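Backbones bend. We report:
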Amino acid sequence: MYLFNRGRVAHPDHFTDAVAWAVDIAGKASSVAGVQVEAWASVLSPDAGTIVWTAVFDTLTDCEAAMDKLGADSAYNAAVTSGAPLFTGTVTDGLLNLITGPTGTEPDYAYVASVQAVAANGQIAAAMQHGVAIAAAATATGGLTTMFGAEVTGPYGGVRWLTGAPSIAALEASMVAVNSDPAFVALVDGGGGVFQPGAQQLLFRRIG
């Protein structure tokens, strides 16, 4: 299973209009491609104003088919072009191979916390094993499903943990439970040297 994400930073002078456009274009993409496309906005995080669109695919062939449908639809592409003045900088795409995915019983996510890291040289196998263990422990301790995946594109050896929550209160309660559990903290610390320094944490709120 793959999680595709496309991000761009809203222009500070047009943030409200960019959010409205982001939700609208997600609906158009869902209709044209035949997959559920969701829109998210970064909150309390670096690169303020970042808007991300996501979609889940079983295979890369499914992803290709959806992209081809979008590329061939003139009305959709005209709508994409119309939104360009609302954003700044370049479009950034990413693709995550979900090693531990959702169970199918989770509530709709209102928030997602993301932690990104890169395996140290010579430690990719250990990083994958440790990443799966951290995801399992975070799920058991925090009460919310934490998914773990390997980046297909971007820095080689990149990994990501994603924890979805139905509310900011639920996410906060999960974070407190995880970060105050000595066994979980010891597990994370036990992976010293497995990942490169500089892991990044981000928080996103669903907007559409």
